[in-house]
Amino acid sequence: MRISLLFAIILGATNGILCQNASAYNVPVKVETIYHFNSSVSLEKLAIRKSGEAIVCFDNSADIYQVDPDLINGSVRHIHTFEGYLTAHGIVEVEDDQFYVAVSNLSVWNHIDVLGSPSIFHVNMTGFPEHRARVREVAHFPDSRILNAMEVISKETGLIYVGDSALGVINILNVNTGHHYMAINNSYTTIYPLDSGNGVYGIHLFQPQNESTKYLYLSNFKQGIIARVPINPESGLPVGEPTVVVSNLTSVAEFALDKEGNIFAALFSLNQFVRVDHETNEVLVLAGGRNIDTYTKAVSVVFGRTESDKGQLYAVTNGGFTALHNVGAGLFRLDTQDMAVV
Question: Where in the sequence is the signal peptide annotated (predicted)?
C-alpha cells in the first residue's frame, strides 16, 4: 500500500497536474458506473447494507431506493416514499438493516426550507425486497430546518448524532424514546460567513490508533474544512475544544474515514472525489474535476461492506439537477483498495 501510494504521488507530481485545492494532485483510480439515473433525479445521501446493496436518498423527492451493485447496470427497487415531505437528506444504520432516515421540506429549486418540518423515521429493511420495509416516525424536530448528517453514538443505548446543515448544529437523538436535544454548536459546525448555505454536512466518529480519545469528525460545506472534537463515547457530548484537521477543501460534502484516519471526501462544486492523507494532508484527486461532467456535483461516499468490495468506495452525485446542463445523478464504485486501510 505504501509503495503504490508513493508511486501515485510521484506520478501525479511529475505530470504537473495541480487541482483547485492546495497540494492536490490527480491520481485517477478505476471507476465503475453502477447506475446512472435520468435527469429527473437528484441524489443526496448513501448507505450500504450488510448484504452489499446500496440505499440512495433522493434530494428532489422524499424517496429512498435500493440499488444492487452486483447486477449489470444495477437493479433499482423503490423502498419507500415519505408522504408529506419534499426530500430525504440523511440516513444511518443503527443495527443490521435498521435504518433511520431524515426527511424535511426543502425545495432544491430555490433552496428554501421550512423551519420545523424535519422528522426522523425508522425503516426496518429486514427481509427486503421479499418483504416490504416497515416504516414508522421516531421523532419530529420542531426547531430544525434541514437534518442531514447522521452517525451512531451507541447501538446499545440507541443514541445517534443528527446534524442540521442549515442551522449549523449537531443534535443527539435517542431512537428508542424519540428524545432529542442540541449537543454541539461551535465555530466549525456553523455557517460562516453568516448567510445562506450549509454548515456541518457530514459527521463520523473515529478513534485514532494508539489514542484513547474518540473524536467526532465533521465536514463544513461553507467553510471548506474537516474538523474534529473530542467526545465522551457514552454520551456523545464534547469533552474538549474542536480543531481543524484539514482546510481548503472547497464545498466538502460527505466523507469517509479508513482505519488509519485517511479521509475520502466528495467535493461538491469541484465535481471531485478525493483522498486526504492522515499524516501529510496531501490531497489526491481520485476522480473528477471542475470541467468533467461525469461526476457533476459529487455529494456522498461510503465504503463497501462485503468481502468482495471491502476497500472500495461507493459514491453518488446529484448530476447538477438544477443546472442548465443536468447530466443525471449517478452511483459509482471507485477502486480505492490500494489507498484505503479498512
Answer: 1-19
Q: Which grid coordinates are listed for 51?
A: 448484504
For every residue of the chain, which 3-state class applies, written as one string?
A: CHHHHHHHHHHHHHCCCECCCCCEEECCCCEEEEEECCCCCCEEEEEECCCCCEEEEECCCCEEEEECCCCCCCCEEEEEECCCCCEEEEEEEEECCEEEEEEECECCCCCCECCCCCEEEEEECCCCCCCCCEEEEEEECCCCCCEEEEEEEECCCCEEEEEECCCCEEEEEECCCCCEEEEECCCCCCCCCCCCCCCEEEEEEECCCCCCCEEEEEEECCCCEEEEEEECCCCCCECCCCEEEECCCCCEEEEEECCCCCEEEEECCCCEEEEECCCCCCEEEEEEECCEHHHCCEEEEEECCCCCCCCCEEEEECCCCCCCCCCCCEEEEECCCCCCCC
The pLDDT of residue 115 is 96
- Residue 294's φ and ψ, nearest 5 degrees, are -55, -40
**In angstroms, rounded to a whole number, what is the distance separating the alpha carbons of residues 112 and 263?**
31
| Residues 6+ positions from 108 with CB-CB distance below 8 Å | 42, 59, 60, 87, 321, 322
pLDDT tens digits, 105-161: 999 888 889 999 999 999 999 999 999 999 999 999 999 999 999 999 999 999 999
Domain boundaries, the chain: 2-334
Percent of the chain with pLDDT over 70: 92
Specify the fold of 2-334.
Neuraminidase (2.120.10)
Spatial CA neighbour of 254 closest among 313, 207, 306: 313
Residue with cell 510521484: 10
- Relative to beta strand 24-26, strand 283-288 is parallel
